Amino acid sequence: MASEETVDYDEEKKAQQIDMVPVEEKEPLTGSSVLIDQEGDPNPLPELPDNGFPAGYGPNEHIKKPEPPKKPSFKERMSRSIAKMTKKQKIITITSVVLTILVATGIGVFLGISGAFRIDYSGTYEAARELRTEMQRIKSNASCDKVIDYVDNAYTNAQVYGTYVDDCREVGKGVTTDVITVLGRTEGVLKDNEIFRKYETFRLAMESASTGNKNVQKVLDSYVIWHKWIITKHGIEARTTKWTEEEIESTAAILTESKEEKFVEYGTKWAELKLAATKAQIAFDKAVDPSSNTDAETMKTLLEEQKKAVEEYKTWEEENKFVITKEIPFEMVDMAVVYNKFTELYDLIRETYQNNYNREKGGCKNLVDGSVVCD
Q: Is the four-CA dihedral 308, 314, 320, 322 of positive or negative sign?
């Protein structure tokens, strides 16, 4: 068994040597993080036995666990900081706080008086009034209803019917997007959330209506053609029971020369049968003329042909009634719904501006008692 080696050294020299691995001194958890009782805990925790178990576990279960350091409140931290300050530092700190409060208050008062935080609704109200003028034209589909109701009416002349159509065209066009965009860029819409929501609801409704009415103009063109056909046909029938070939051809051309395929097909067949019946009628009328010297058998044959041609025309016309509202449906978004959305928006803008009136910009009526009324 090897003997243990003993190393001798000079204690005095050892004490003079520099420790190359100094013991790290950790700063206690004090200051702004935790509170440490410098005078000791009046109820110190019992020492742990040397058994390897922490407090509260195993054989040390009966020993109280050490509580984590308590974080100081803001008031306590401030008290500590102030207590450590010199008299001069305290004066400087208090002066700085007071000046900061005075400056902030002064700025707030100035901005409040100058209206820097106030929303200017004058531009919004002005743009809304301009848009209201445009909306008045399309607030009702009444003119479009008349276009449908009188399209087959031979007693509504072309001029009157044309007025219905023109008014309906305006409704179908809606309002220009420029006017709506101008309103959307005003301060009241951009900064007032409630007005912005109403504006977006109206804008989307108008956008949807414009998309839904994109075929209105084409349908109106077809209804004008059909109404012209109706009053032309009725005019000739009211004047005579015997059409000429020229009258048939010119009347049929109203349909056959249009770009509407259904009109072309119907007009072509109508002209074919109408001409056959008319020619058979003309042939029979010539035969019965005393100067024609037509024999009875020929006259009988011509009469049967005339009856057959007329019957064939009438049967076809009865069985193939052209109902334009079914063949070419007139579908249009109810603009009254869109107008109601605008009314909600306008009323909100009007009331808001009335309560936040800009007397320099004006736009509303100033009453004797000093109150304001916006229309």
A: positive
For 140-150, how does the pLDDT look when each residue is reduced to its tens digit (9 = 90+)? Answer: 888 999 999 99
Dihedral sign for Cα atoms in the order 89, 91, 97, 100: negative
- Between CA 273 and CA 270 the distance in angstroms is 5
> Cα 66–81–107 angle (5° rounding)?
125
| 270 or 294, higher pLDDT | 270
Query: How does pLDDT run across 93-108, given as a tens digit for each residue?
Result: 777 766 767 666 555 5
| CA dist., res. 356 & res. 254, Å (int) | 60
Q: At what angle do helices 335-355 and 122-136 cross, to 10 degrees?
A: 150
Q: Tokens 């065209």 label which residue?
A: 169
Alpha helices (runs of H) in the chain, residue ranges in sequence order: 11-16, 74-84, 87-114, 122-136, 142-149, 158-173, 177-184, 187-191, 193-212, 216-239, 245-256, 261-287, 296-319, 324-327, 335-355
Rounded Cα–Cα distance for residues 185 and 348 (Å): 17
Predicted TM-score (pTM) of the model is 0.62
Contact 283, 302 (CB under 8 A): yes
How many Å apart are CA 266 and CA 273, to the nearest integer? 11
280 and 245 Cβ atoms separated by less than 8 Å: no
Do residues 254 and 228 make contact, with C-beta atoms less than 8 angstroms apart?
yes
Length of the chain as a residue count: 375
Alpha carbon 341 to its chain centroid, in Å, reads: 11
Residue-wise pLDDT for 123-166, tens only, equals: 999 999 999 999 988 888 889 999 999 999 999 999 999 999 99
Report which secondary-structure segment, H or E, holds 372: strand 372-373
